[in-house]
Predict the structure of Aspartyl-tRNA(Asn)/glutamyl-tRNA(Gln) amidotransferase subunit A.
Amino acid sequence: MQPYELSLTAAADAIRERRLSPVELVDSVLDRVEEVEPQLGAYVALTAERARREAVEAERDVARGRYRGPLHGVPMALKDLIDVNGMATTASSRVRADHRATADSTVAARLGAAGAILLGKTHTHEFAFGLTTPQTRNAWDRDRVAGGSSGGSAVAVASGSATFALGTDTGGSIRVPAALNGVVGLKPTYGLVPRHGVTSLSWSLDHVGPITRTVEDAALVLAALAGHDPRDPASLPVPAADYRPGPDADLTGLRIGLPRNYYFDHVHPQVETAVRHAVGQLAAQGAQLVEVDIPMTRYIRATQWGLMVPEAGAYHERTLRTLPELYQEDVRILLEAGELMSAGDYLRAQRARTLMRAEWARLLEQVDVVAAPSVPMPAVGAGEETVDWPDGTTESVSDAYVRLCAPANITGLPALTVPVGHDAAGLPIGMQLLGRPLGEATLLRVGHAYEQTRPARALATAA
């Protein structure tokens, strides 16, 4: 096995035990970037020389007993909405062509303090306002979409061109590309991870979180990211914690909600089969399955878009009026649509969100975790704009991919996607776990327990 193939946890153990140097790991991952990047297009910008310098420093620190923890000397990538001092934050848009960050975002600073090594910035759907990331190709099939908007981050992790990465999630933008590329994606509780220095799409829906190869890896990254920051008004006054799941895969006494409605409606049959099989594995590990009804489903789509579109429009108001030609057409149309929404529409969406949160809180009194598909179908072909369902209905690809992820953004609940197999074409399928506010430890425990039932996953093969 080459160093670039190692999970974060395995690489951290090898570095701590002096069986692997950060220099060897960074060189291996950069060699992998050189090999696969021309085919996949995950990165906006690479910081190879900086990464090599930091790897030498990390190797020296570890040798002198100044080991900072499991992220020390491990190479990572950041979605290009996340500020790094002195670097461009382009948001994959011509609007940001001349932008340079003058300070680190909170998450970049925390990862740097933990010793993680930046490889570069990854592509996003322009300003994170989309679900495909068209500049980037799926790590398993280059003719398929990467998913969005954190498509570059997911593809980098899935292909071995980053050991871990950060994404952002406003309507599924961590979980969708993670599921479509066969990796782990965690959207934390709203406010657990600070967003200071991260370009906003929709302030009341935005989250920052890790994309990794294993659930344990996600726990290690979350521990470095979480914690209060007064510069983010939504940041929760809770301390960071140790989220790492224990080795015990026994789930006896845990109640897993299996939706009777919504989450298995208009879902590809191979996705449903894989997810239900994975839930069966959790039951075999002792979990109790409880059928549940998802509340207020008829309002989910309207509430998601009713919050996101006007908030995005407000953020882009000045540049949309002065530089509209610099936006990609799909994003410009959505932003212009936001200008047509009334204050009453937005307030009704906020009211629906409040009611939805209360109903989900009641649901999560009955169960500890809800298990469902992450997305309704595997990665579609690049350029495909709609999906046809057997009942004769047609749905846009973006609506389909956001549909099963939106409830966790509206309510702010934590949600984790884990790979649970592949379809007949070899494309990954993801299972989503949703939990109570600040219930990340439980989600990670369940996801990790499921991983113990499967052999170690190989890297993607499209490159």
